[in-house]
Write a structure and sequence with these properties.
heterodimer; A: 4-stranded antiparallel β-sheet; 11 helices; B: 5-stranded mixed β-sheet; globular
Chain lengths: 340, 411
């Protein structure tokens, strides 16, 4: 699908942010595509590169002579797609801010339509793979399934109804971006989702059909670490709002410690009184020999100065009933816990 | 596609390992975990195993799952060796997959292989984050990464006590992570503290530790050292054991060196064959370091595949784990075929004379009692004479025929 928009209908300035990492080979074709699509409009392109080992930032610097609207930010010691986008937005001059991937998978011809859509009154325009006319291109079944599962999870969190909250191709009104900015959690690679989670209900959002293309060169960034970051993000914006990982860890320790502590307290004499410990040892040995118990089938429930309350439960692949007994130190008698 | 094939291939290998160990039946230590008997280890994994105690084929299922976990861990090594050459990467992976200790232990339902998995993860974390691999600076562990390491630390400690041996690696990883030092201390010491409280709640664990320490204490030093040498041999396939140890020392990672010393000392003290697998992740760490300084050739891959076979055949005692003789299993199966009705009523009482293992509890559905003189006049429905039975016990009983152990059944 090709969008034909008359440039004179658009009067805002547009900033298009391209976060990059090892995209040196794709850069020229993507920049040419954007320039062609935005011809005649007031726009700037901002490349935010995370100090790519393949020298993407260097290539981008070199291309500035060819693309006058191009600006380059090289980030050293900082990584992550979402934070790169926000850094690009912070440096942008435009009234409408857009993001797209620099790997050639996003159709640059959709840019003017997205811009026009925001100019026309929408706060957010999304290039969507899941609306009519859009497609996921030639993804394999595994990636398709993963994307659908991630989308399903993400949709539970969005404050505005959309079909593709995981898209990396969108345009946003500057005022909408600035309102959401203090709430954002730029972790991972899904900045649109972060906006959708934090923008006010009632924000006007539109989705335009995007036919997802094939990566032109280089490797996908969808690593296990990125998938983990997504789950981490989901945790952050749900349970994490109330309980950080550290606090949940402390809580788990507290629960385990309390449960174990509750079991230790009734048998504390075993550790605090050498006399009781000796008596318990003798009594247990005697009772085990008398009744043929295996020590591994016996568990202490309570130890007092006079007796032991113990549970006897034979281990087997078939369930045997457990029995509770009280063994008295004075006369070495053993009685059921039910007896008075 | 290549990765899919690799995963399926690894699963087939895991299946083969599980089948190898299945032949010998469930051994006493395995039965202890499968029946969730509350010692010597904390409850996390054994209580999960205990959930399937009544399910037919439970032992095989867990053998396969444990073996799968171990062989699929090779992807961690694949990632760790990403910066090394082709032969280096695949040699280290082959050493993990096919070393003698892996063949001997990956299909067992024991806690040592699980600790080795945790150990490999700790080695991976320590080398991948905050240190150096060769000359390349590795990554910094994030808050979430530190949280994950802490969770694994907690889980591994509550799976088996021996996980504590890897504490230098865990501490170093957490200390270098981008978290505050207070958080680091909570992540590190918190699990140890709650494990200590749990241990106090289960005196059987403390008693069993005392008994084992007493038994091991009597062994001569030479026996212990030769036991350790054997473990080191099966863990590192001689050549890679030497290279791994060189890598550990030359890499100058104090956490890896300290863990290696602690694990080695523990193995010398405890003298158990199955602890050999605890050395493996450390030797893998050492190998990664060595291969980041020297590029091995294809011959190393061939050696990594062939040396384990030679070692296994040179150490016939190691192969005893695959023995198909299992008195408890064979007795239960013979009794089931000669007196099938007796198994219909699990409330029957079984008395065993002599020393026996938990495998008897696994294979017989009855409540098992251990004979002592005080029980000479007690009536049991089934008596197994692992040692000679007193004549009085046999009164009113008949001897079941064709049993590997003398078994008497009440008339």
């Amino acid at each position: 699908m090709r969008w034909v928009i008359s440039p004179d209908k658009l009067c805002s300035m547009f900033s298009i942010v391209l976060p990059t990492y090892n995209e040196e080979k794709n850069l020229l074709s993507v920049l040419s595509g954007v320039t062609e699509a935005m011809h005649g409009m007031d726009y700037e392109i901002i490349i935010v590169d995370d100090d790519s080992p393949d020298g993407t930032w260097k290539k981008a610097e070199d291309l500035r002579s060819k693309f006058s609207s191009l600006r380059v930010i090289r980030r050293i010691g900082r990584r992550g797609l979402s934070s790169a986008v926000l850094e690009g937005f912070a440096a942008a001059k435009g009234d409408i801010l857009a993001v797209m991937d620099a790997d050639g998978q996003h159709d640059t011809h959709l840019l003017p339509a997205m811009m026009q859509s925001v100019e026309a009154g929408n706060d957010l325009a999304i290039g969507s793979r899941y609306v009519e006319g859009g497609s996921i291109g030639e993804w394999d079944e595994r990636r398709h399934l993963m994307s659908r599962a991630a989308t399903w999870l993400a949709l539970r969190l969005c404050r505005v109804r959309v079909k593709d909250p995981m898209s990396g191709f969108f345009a946003i009104r500057r005022s909408t971006y600035e309102r959401a900015l203090p709430l954002l959690n730029p972790k991972g690679f899904k900045i649109l989702l972060d906006f959708l989670v934090h923008i006010p209900r009632g924000t006007r959002v539109t989705e335009l059909p995007l036919r997802f293309g094939m990566r032109k060169a280089g490797e996908s960034k969808l690593s296990t670490a990125v998938q983990f970051q997504f789950l981490e993000y989901l945790y952050d914006v749900t349970l994490g709002k109330y309980l950080s990982p550290f606090l949940s860890f402390c809580l788990a320790l507290l629960i385990i410690g309390t449960i174990a502590g509750i079991r230790v307290w009734p048998i504390r004499l075993l550790y605090t009184s050498a006399g009781v410990r000796n008596q318990v040892q003798q009594e247990l040995t005697l009772q085990a020999q008398t009744h043929g118990w295996l020590l591994s089938d016996v568990a202490f429930q309570m130890i007092t100065a006079d007796n032991i309350r113990l549970a006897y439960h034979p281990h087997s692949r078939v369930s045997h009933p457990a029995a509770c007994f009280i063994a008295r130190f004075s006369d070495h008698s053993l009685s059921s816990c039910d007896e008075k | 596609m290549r990765r899919k094939v690799a995963v399926i291939g690894l699963e087939l290998y895991a299946l083969a390992l599980a089948v190898l160990h299945f032949v010998g039946g469930v051994l006493t230590d395995e039965a202890k975990y499968l029946l969730n008997i509350p010692y010597p280890h904390p409850p996390l994994v054994r209580s999960i195993l205990g959930l399937t105690a009544g399910v037919p084929g439970d032992a095989f299922l867990w053998r396969f799952l444990f073996a799968s976990l171990l062989v699929q861990c090779v992807w961690l090594i694949h990632d760790l060796c990403g910066g090394l050459g082709y032969y280096a990467r695949y040699t280290v992976m082959i050493v993990w997959l096919f070393c003698a200790t892996m063949i001997l232990q990956a299909g067992t339902v024991m806690m040592a292989p699980l600790t080795a998995v945790a150990g490999l993860f700790f080695v991976y974390s320590a080398m991948r984050y905050g240190g150096y691999i060769g000359d390349k600076r590795s990554l910094v562990l994030t808050k979430s990464g530190a949280f994950l390491v802490a969770c694994l630390w907690l889980a591994s400690l509550f799976t088996a006590y021996q996980a504590i041996l890897f504490f230098p690696l865990v501490f170093a990883t957490l200390w270098r992570a981008s978290i505050s030092k207070k958080k680091c201390l909570v992540y590190f010491f918190g699990p140890i503290l709650v494990l200590s409280i749990y241990t106090l709640s289960n005196p059987l664990v403390l008693a069993s530790m005392g008994i084992v320490a007493g038994k091991d204490g009597g062994l001569p030093l030479l026996t212990r050292l030769s036991g350790y040498a054997k473990a080191w041999l099966v863990a590192g396939d001689l050549l890679f054991g030497i290279l791994g140890a060189i890598g550990i020392i030359r890499g100058r990672r104090w956490e890896l060196i300290a863990t290696f010393i602690i694990v080695s000392a523990y193995m010398i003290v405890s003298d158990q064959d199955y602890y050999a697998i605890l050395l493996l992740p450390l030797l893998i760490g050492g190998l990664v370091d060595v291969f980041s300084r020297m590029a091995p050739r294809w011959q190393y891959m061939v050696w990594a595949l062939s040396i384990p076979v030679i070692i296994l055949f040179a150490l016939p005692s190691a192969l005893s784990v695959f023995s198909d003789a299992n008195p408890a299993r064979d007795s239960a199966s013979s009794l089931r075929s000669s007196v099938p009705t007796i198994f219909d009523d699990p409330s029957k009482k079984m008395l065993i004379v002599g020393s026996f293992g938990h495998d008897w509890e696994y294979y017989f559905p009855f409540a098992i009692h251990k004979y002592s003189d005080a029980l000479a006049d007690k009536k049991a429905d089934v008596i197994a004479c692992v040692q000679a039975c007193p004549a009085t016990l046999k009164e009113g009983m008949y001897l079941a025929t064709a049993m590997p152990v003398e078994i008497y059944v009440r008339k």
